[in-house]
Amino acid sequence: MEKTPQTEPRQSWTFSNDVNSEIRRAAATGIYDIRGGGAKRRVPHFDDLLFLGASMSRYPLEGYREKCETSVTLGTRFAKKPIELKIPVTIAGMSFGSLSGPAKEALGRGATMAGTSTTTGDGGMTEEERGHSEMLVYQYLPSRYGMNPDDLRRADAIEVVVGQGAKPGGGGMLLGQKITERVAGMRDLPEGIDQRSACRHPDWTGPDDLEIKILELREITNWEKPIYIKIGGARPYYDTALAVKAGADVIVLDGMQGGTAATQDVFIEHVGQPTLACIRPAVQALQDLGMHREVQLVVSGGIRTGADVAKALALGADAVSIGTAALVALGDNDPKWEAEYQKLGTTTGAYDDWHEGLDPAGITTQDPELMARLDPEAAGRRLRNYLNVLTLECQTLARACGHNHVHNLEPEDLCALTMEAAAMAQVPLAGTNWYPGKPGF
Amino acid sequence: MSTTLNMTEINLREVNSTLQDAAKAQANAAYVIENPRGSHAVACGLDGPLTVTVKGSTGYYCAGMNKEAAITVEGSAGPGVAENMMSGVVTIEGDASQYAGATGHGGLLNIKGNASSRCGISMKGIDIVVHGNIGHMSAFMAQKGNLVVLGDAGDALGDSLYEARLFVRGTVKSLGADCIEKEMRPEHIALLTELLEKAGADAKPEEFKRYGSARKLYNFNIDHADAY
Predict the structure, then answer these.
(1) Distances (CA, A) of A33 to A36, A113, A192, B75
(2) What are B's interface residues with A at a Cβ cutoff of 8 A?
(3) Which residues lie closer than 8 Å to A71 by C-beta, 6 or more apart?
(4) Confidence (pTM)
(5) Domain containing A249: what range?
(6) What is the pLDDT of residues A417-426, one digit of tens each?
(7) Model ipTM?
(8) Of the residues A320, A391, B215, B223, which has the maximum number of CB atoms within 10 A of its CB?
(9) Domain with A331 in it: what CATH number?
(10) Do the domain assignments include residue A28?
């Protein structure tokens, strides 16, 4: 007898295996999932933009022979000593505590060799990073862990952190297993407790107060240091305008793909806007105030390649900042640790439980044995190489568009592959002269 | 012999750079600031022994991040007085606005009048003595140090407290999450005696109650979620 044909088992798109596994995990533990990194969902990104290149109406620069400048000066508005970078890529703030001491040293080494700055994070400044970073930006965070005026004065710039792209409106959590004696001592907390980083500053509440806070920081540092304000990609037009009003020299704008050491997965994936959607409104705010290029804009969140760098600059940024990519360059999520990732229930590329302190690559840990796996000199060289590649790629694209400085890249050099990207970047959909929302259509 | 800096004649930058240079010189000099007129960031970032007397009231962040200097405000102080202080003594003869002594690491902040909300927020080792009352959410997430209040405390005292010690003589409107009353042992009486003496406060240590962390929220436990 012939068998009755049957349909293949059909998985639900709404209740996928991934979704169901999270429901089972939540049911078993009663607590939300905490992880590191940025948004993993697919969002419109720089991949959805293309450069047009030179043609009959533009002439290119010779790829290897003609000069294409990459230098950037940050902090020209008020600071007596602006920061001079050789390349338009900086290293984003990542805390000692979240990262090991050797990892911070490696970031400093790599950034310095490439001619750019690195940034502290929650928990204060370590000798490893100050000693190995020619240009070090000191983050001034809500928790003020490890905050002291001596470090403020020996920094090269100060970054007031209002928010970050992974969690605009949220604070942080460093779980007890990473609060070693040294980390606890720097943060004035007992060892082994879960350490909460506050979501807002303890002594100011809005842009009017922040203006006075910045006055105080400038008075304490003799008006020498550039003051950055870092904002998460929430309301980029108004947040940028208010940061200018509050007296920023530099605005750091971090989209939702920007990483964090640890927060709730639901927060990372459901709060904030994609980096691509944030740049044009921020640039528009600067232009409306007559401050574009006077107050520099640094964009972060999902920068991976020289093409990403070039596209961010073309949309109006002065520089970009990298965090996750820098960790990968150091050795994070390297396939050579696959067996150990498997033991932790994950796999290469997906490891994001940075808060647990068990990082096989020895980067997001305070465990001495794991930390010893990272050679800061070799890791620093890898970061230097990677930063050099980002810069060379960016230069290549700028020359192909006929520009002798990467800052001369402009929206006119771009088109978009999707309607969403066209709307967000406000550049024409490929093959058209139109983007959604374009005036006159 | 003191040097007078008159803020109707010189601006904030000149005042602060004069004081900062004098502090750095380690000469223990004395300065008087006249006509502060509520200016912000007066006498901030001093890094050395120096005596400063401010003749009048100040705005935000007076004596911010002070190290070693002795600063007296003969008036009231705006928000964030002595924020992130590292050492030294800051005395406010009048009242202090919100966030007094926020995130302070060390030294003594002596407020002769009242302090508003969030006094001692995130304090990290500073000693704060308030001769009057303090407002709501004081000592929020306070990590280390001592807060002494001769008067009453507002709502949610010591919410999400870590290891700071709170001593209140008057009433406490309510305690914040994980803050409880604790036993006053001899070592606390001795500590309080010393702090009251340093602050010139006329009170007996035995009149105070001590509050501190129950330490139940130190490591996240889903069974304690209702406490937040």
Answers:
(1) 10, 38, 20, 51
(2) 12-13, 16-17, 20, 40-41, 44-45, 47, 59-61, 64-65, 67, 79-80, 83-84, 86, 99, 102-103, 105, 118, 121-122, 124-125, 140-141, 143-144, 160, 162-163, 218-220, 222
(3) A84, A85, A86, A87
(4) 0.95
(5) 34-425
(6) 999 999 999 9
(7) 0.96
(8) A320
(9) 3.20.20.70
(10) no
